[in-house]
Write a structure and sequence with these properties.
Elements lengths: L17 E2 L12 E8 L6 E7 L5 E6 L4 E6 L6 E2 L8 E5 L4 E7 L5 E7 L2 E7 L1 E5 L5 E9 L4 E9 L5 E3 L7 E7 L5 E6 L5 E6 L5 E3 L8 E7 L5 E6 L6 E7 L2 E4 L6 E7 L5 E6 L5 E7 L2 E4 L13 E5 L5 E4 L6 E7 L4 E2 L7 E2 L4 E7 L2 E8 L9 E3 L14
Antiparallel strand pairs: 1-32, 2-29, 3-4, 4-5, 5-6, 7-8, 8-9, 9-10, 11-12, 12-13, 13-14, 15-16, 16-17, 17-18, 19-20, 20-21, 21-22, 23-24, 24-25, 25-26, 27-28, 28-29, 30-31, 32-33, 33-34
Amino acid sequence: MIRRVVVAAIAATAISVVSATPSVAATRQPDYWTRADTAGPGANAYNTFYAVNDRGDAVGGFSSDVQGGPLIRYAGHPAQRISGSPIDGWFADINNAGVAVGSGFDAGFHYVSYAYDHGLVTELGDGQAQSINDAGTVLLNVYRYDSDAGMDLSAPELRAPNGPRSSLPYAGWTSAAGLDVSNTGWVVGAVVDANNKATAARWSPDGTLQLLATPKGYDEAVALHGNSRGDAVGAALTADRQSIVAVEWRNGEARVLNPPGTFAEARSINDNGTAVGIYVDAAFNVHAVAWQNGTTQYVDDFVTNPTAAVHQLNDISNNGTLASESADQATASVYLPHNGLFVRVTPGQAPVGNATGLDVRIPLENQLLTGHLTAYPGAHSLLDVRFVSPTASLRLPPLP
């Protein structure tokens, strides 16, 4: 749920605020998040979570000067780095049963894929595993050398839960890549022509190829993730590669999510229609963002216990759980969703919250202050701060 930000010039200890009235249930997306687990940082190390499920299980990869491999975090347990053939690459996705898929390399440096189910490894054969849905269907890209092109070209395949594979069509195109399969069987990705130009595409549950429109003024596009409704998100590039924008495709129509003069990439969309990704503003500040119904939310402002800024979001589950990595890719984190109201106060900074007119109790210097915060919608500043006896009313801003 996208809420307005409440800010004011109050310096205090970092807190989560408890409402003085009953909690308010969210009707769409979470109101705020708490950091559940972090992998890294380490000396000269890279850690990332690419995907997360509703339980908070997350997968990705790690690398350092001396080793690398898959990274997995099962809810309630610390993140684990796994190594050993064939698990020597990375995990790409995890479903709600906790089954992860990933890829490594054989002795000839060809892709091989595997599934990992709480320690049980199943080899899936050649190809690069990209995604697994809750039914256990795995999306892979298989690479074959093309002598005319002088390079390996990819072709997407689906592996059924019981093992058989089927190819996805891309007639009339040089190659294709599938990047995500939803729980209803929609596949999103891209097709590539002879000039190596990508066009965003999706395959319907019956396997029919559908091209997705490239936004006006952009040269090519890729759909990175989709949901069960067939919506997709991704990115579009200009011909000179100097501009990249986040794109959402709904009912096959493209919409650019970030304003002119900025850069962005939408990396995931859930069944509620909330997309997440990375956004670089006109001053080149990097933000983790969520988009819903055309509204942009800086997720950094809605994390109650940050250890550092949340700079890149790679995935959002259907219940709003987030998978992220830091700007320098040294730290990977999982953020769990919550419904209700909060205000975060950091020493020397203005408090950040998600309601206008909020009755709160704030632990401040070992004292419990009870008060009422009043702000005016759209002002982005706390114009009236009164610590008085709590009232019985709780006023929320209208949903956007």
